[in-house]
Design a protein that fits this description.
This is Electron transfer flavoprotein subunit alpha/FixB family protein. By secondary structure, this protein is of the alpha/beta class. The chain is built from 8 helices and 17 strands. The strands form 4 sheets. A 7-stranded parallel β-sheet has the order 7-11-6-1-4-5-12, with helices on both faces. Strands 14-13-15-16-17 form a 5-stranded parallel β-sheet. Strands 8-9-10 form a 3-stranded antiparallel β-sheet, with helices on one face. Strand 15, helix 6 and strand 16 form a beta-alpha-beta unit. Helix 2 crosses helix 3 and helix 4 runs parallel beside helix 8. It binds flavin-adenine dinucleotide (FAD).
């Protein structure tokens, strides 16, 4: 019996969430007196996982899995769990993993909890703390099924290095045509831009920026920081920015390490979608703007003066 994690990779390289998940699972395994196994798909240097506490890696290499395919990937994770006699499967909260997690849970007849934000409150009975009400509160959920599946929220557990090496084992799950009944034909990348879902830093602009012609400084700040750009709902409604950048309750959720809001008032519907970010910074000319109540750092000032100065300073580093 071991804990199984799905260690996500892109183009052969592990994403940071894979190491976060390994660190998390290691801590849980220690408290349960068990080990951590990772299943990987077409990843190259699987030894990296050992540095974060993974004891064994089931290495899947299959050209049919080059593009993410939820049904096939869910089958891979399920078969890995069955092979290892796993009672706890741990996934992350990326778009892909959130797609997989419920499918894996159904196929294993397992109870499932998403949005887990901390180490289990108790492992027997198995209880986890979860985000609720758009990160405004928490609840404790008990999973009583024999096999359990959880999805850990991004940024809820840091990287913890461990000593030890991961033993790699080739694993060839049996996949059939039904696994590929939905085919991903093409994946289009927005070149040169960081995707909001994967971004460590997000620079976001609101109606305070007055018009689309003023977004140059937002993009420049994002480029200096290696960040994704985002916006408030009215900004995308006004077609100042594409709808793909709209964040908040009705837009994309953001769980970045750093979220910088420029000229955004901090309406409840906006905050609901970005509240899971670790550090929130606001730049707003109105000291009474509600965003200051939730921000970790705030600059009261005119964005058109503050942002160019910030860019200038950052360029000095
Ligand atoms: P405003 O509220 O107009 O705020 C602009 C801010 O810019 C002000 O605080 C102002 O002081 C500041 N400012 C002005 N000039 C400057 C300057 N020169 N320098 C610095 N600061 C300046 N909104 C979202 O964002 N995401 C959502 O998902 C979302 N979902 C919604 C769902 C529903 C059902 C509803 C009813 C609303 C939703 N909204 C959402 C809209 C939300 O209520 C707010 O209207 C919106 O977030 C406000 O956007 P804003 O902060 O860009 O604009």
């Amino acid at each position: 019996m071991s804990i199984l994690i799905y260690a996500e990779s892109a183009e052969g390289k592990f994403k940071k969430v894979a190491f976060e998940l390994a660190s998390y699972a290691k801590k849980v395994a220690e408290s349960m007196g068990t080990t951590v196994t990772a299943v990987t798909v077409n990843a190259s240097d699987v030894s990296e996982l050992g540095k974060y506490g993974v004891d064994k890696v089931l290495k899947v290499s299959d050209d049919r899995l080059t593009k993410f395919n939820a049904k096939a990937y869910a089958d891979v994770v399920k078969q890995a769990a069955q092979k290892e006699g796993t009672t706890l499967v741990v996934l992350s909260s990326t778009t892909d993993s959130l797609y997989l997690a419920p499918m894996v849970a159904v196929s294993l007849e397992a109870g499932y909890a998403s949005n887990v934000v901390a180490l289990p409150v108790s492992t027997s009975p198995f209880q986890v703390k979860r985000n609720a009400f758009s990160s405004k509160g928490f609840n404790v959920t008990e999973i009583s099924s024999d096999v359990k599946v959880i999805a850990v929220a991004k940024n809820s557990f840091g990287l913890v290095e461990a000593s030890g090496a991961a033993a790699a084992e080739d694993f060839a799950p049996s996949l059939n045509d039904a696994d590929f009944s939905i085919k991903v034909e093409n994946v289009e990348k927005v070149s040169g831009k960081v995707a909001i879902a994967d971004a460590e830093i997000v620079v976001s602009g609101g109606r305070g920026l007055k018009g689309p012609e003023n977004w140059g400084m937002v993009e420049e700040l994002a480029s200096v920081l290696g960040a994704a750009t985002a916006c408030s709902k009215p900004v995308s409604d006004l077609d100042w920015r594409p709808h793909s950048e709209h964040v908040g309750q009705t837009g994309k959720p953001v769980a970045a390490n750093l979220y910088i809001a420029i000229g955004i008032s901090g309406a409840i519907q906006h905050i609901a979608g970005i509240n899971a970010s670790k550090v929130k910074v606001v730049i707003n000319s109105d000291p009474e703007a509600p965003f200051f109540k939730v921000a970790d750092y705030g600059i009261v000032g005119d964005a058109f003066e503050v942002v160019p100065k910030l860019i200038e300073k950052l360029k000095e580093f």
